[in-house]
Amino acid sequence: MNLSSTPYSDAAREELLALWSAALPLDAVTLDTLETRVLLDENFDPETFLLARSNGELVGFVLGIHAKRMPLGDADPAGDRCWITALGIRPGHDVRAIGTFLLTEAEKRLKALGKHECRVAGYPPGYFTPGIDLRTYGPYLELFQANGYTVFHEALSMDSSIALFTVPEKTVQIEQKLKGDGIDIRFYHRNDLVRFMEFLEKSMPSDWVRVERRNLRKIVEGGFHPEQVVLVTKGDEIIGYCQFEGSHFGPFGVSDAYQGRGIGTVLLARTLERMRQEGHHDAWVMWTDDLAAKVYGKFGFKETRRFALLKKAF
After folding, report:
1. Which residues make up the CATH 3.40.630.30 domain(s) of the chain?
2. Contacts of 223 (CB under 8 A, 6+ apart)
3. Residue 212 belongs to what H/E stretch?
4. Three-state DSSP class for residue 275
5. pLDDT digits (tens, 9 = 90+) for 81-115
6. pLDDT for 270-284, tens place per residue?
7. Which CATH architecture has domain 163-280?
8. Closest by alpha carbon to 131, among 119, 139, 115?
9. Beta-strand (E) ranges in the chain?
């Protein structure tokens, strides 16, 4: 097979979108998504977004990302990580051969930039999925493993119908007990802003801080509202939070010192209640683990997809 690779160019975007849809049917992207999540990402680099052709036909692509312009905090502490956020091969073509060709070329370019570890899919500012879908994309998982990538974790996405959701009495009792201990669960107020950001920066992953900073800016513009964030407070201290965007639930988290007291259960329930009140019939979470899934399961969430998270040292 005569293969060649070139960096992404806008002249290929329609051809690329058609291939992406065919190769990754559960994760196809629109032109709007391509522009907002890829081409306008601060770290976009066309030199690591490679298109493979055979006899002039587009047969595959690989999207490599690195911290070109924007540092990624605790997601890239030494500045030597990179990510493959998407890879697709035209159906009917050799996934192993074309995929290996693309990975080899992408890795060569990323190594030349001083990167020493590559992770699959979970680039914090713009991942499409947490990893490789174990049920749907088996040949892609085999491709990465054949090229030296190892699975280091599994993640799952979950969905729940909330059209008839009400907060269970047992959860109300937990909430009352917490209130007796001085712990309140309430909506975000705009005068919480500085303390909220201090809590996030101290207790949560840097990507969650970035997401919340973006959403709080939207409040000023009218594109987000305070009732989309539920806070946990103890006196003047913020110790936990949860948020939603449309039917997307999360992220949510509680300070380590206050875990194991049922706070997360109440946060989840009150957020789902607010989502139903706003007219959402369903709720979904893209990325969680088996431990947290037990809490989600109490409120009707069921596993929808399961992903392998992979990495490779150069």
Report:
1. 3-155, 163-280
2. none
3. helix 206-221
4. helix
5. 999 999 999 999 999 999 999 999 999 999 999 99
6. 999 999 999 999 999
7. 3-Layer(aba) Sandwich (3.40)
8. 119
9. 3-7, 49-54, 57-66, 81-89, 117-120, 132-133, 150-161, 183-187, 229-234, 237-245, 248-254, 282-288, 302-313
3-state secondary structure of 245: strand
Contact between residue 105 and residue 55 where contact means Cβ atoms under 8 Å apart: no
Longest C-alpha distance within the chain, in Å?
72
The CATH number of 3-155, from 1.25.40.20, 3.30.930.10, 3.30.160.620, 3.40.630.30, is 3.40.630.30
Apex 34 CA angle, 28 and 35, nearest 5 = 160
The pLDDT value recorded for residue 141 is 98
Encoded amino acid at 289, one letter: D
Exposure string of 165-204, with b = 16+ CB inside 10 Å and e = fewer, is beeeeebeebbeebeeeebebeebeeebeeebeebbeebb
Report how far residue 197's alpha carbon sits from residue 306's, in angstroms, rounded to the nearest whole number.
32
Question: Which of 91, 87, 93, 90 lies closest to 147 in space, CA to CA?
Answer: 87
pLDDT in tens, 33-53: 999 999 999 999 999 999 999
Contact assessment for residue 87 and residue 5, using Cβ atoms and an 8 Å cutoff: no
The tokens for 232 are 């946990």
User: Among 92, 26, 25, 24, which residue's Cα sits nearest to residue 63?
Assistant: 24
pLDDT tens digits along 176-235: 999 999 999 999 999 999 999 999 999 999 989 999 999 999 999 899 999 999 999 999
For residue range 248-305, what is the model confidence (pLDDT) as tens digits?
A: 999 999 999 999 999 999 999 999 999 999 999 999 999 999 988 998 999 999 999 9
